[in-house]
Amino acid sequence: MYAKIENDRWRLTRTSVDEVRYRALCEDKEVVHRKRVYKSAGTLPIDAEEVPQAMQEEYSYTSEELEYLERRIFGPARTERKERERLAQEHECDPGWRLADALRLLSDAVAVCREYQVGCDAEKIKKIRAELSILPEVDSVGATSDTSARVTKLMSGAVSEIELAATIVREAGLPNSPNGLRSAIGKQWQELSKAQAILLPLLQKGGYVRKNSSKT
To answer: Is the pLDDT at 141 greater than 80, yes or no?
Structure first.
């Protein structure tokens, strides 16, 4: 099977090889003639993400054909849809383009006032100033502060969890591990050590931790 786009739809085609055997009288031997046969296997919307049940019942796609359609059509279609949804969500949550439109309209209003020597409605200007006064600003300092708060919260949670684990071990105790470092706890401790090794130089670079020590 193969699929190609025709008229904004996926056209599916099955291929097979038919053999025709006959005996050549001049040479008195059997001759095999092979011919490739093409047969329609339906069409799908350009953004299809699965085979409709009716088409499956009509064409009885094999598992190999379904795997091909997943790689060729359905998987990429889902990826593109998710990307469109992500971009749409980012656009919906982004005040930047709204501010750009507002700034453009304000610039037009200023140009009109200057050209035609007219004024603007005082109440509307008052409302605009009121909205601007409560509009939150985001700059590099604000972004850093937000990041710092998030990192602090994450690290605080990690410290609390480790302290809780220490309390449980101290009070309830742990049996000796027959697997040593290969045990679940041993492996988890190694992962914690690796995570600390990754975070430490980043904190040192920002001046949060001394470079000659793991202490702040």
So the answer is: no
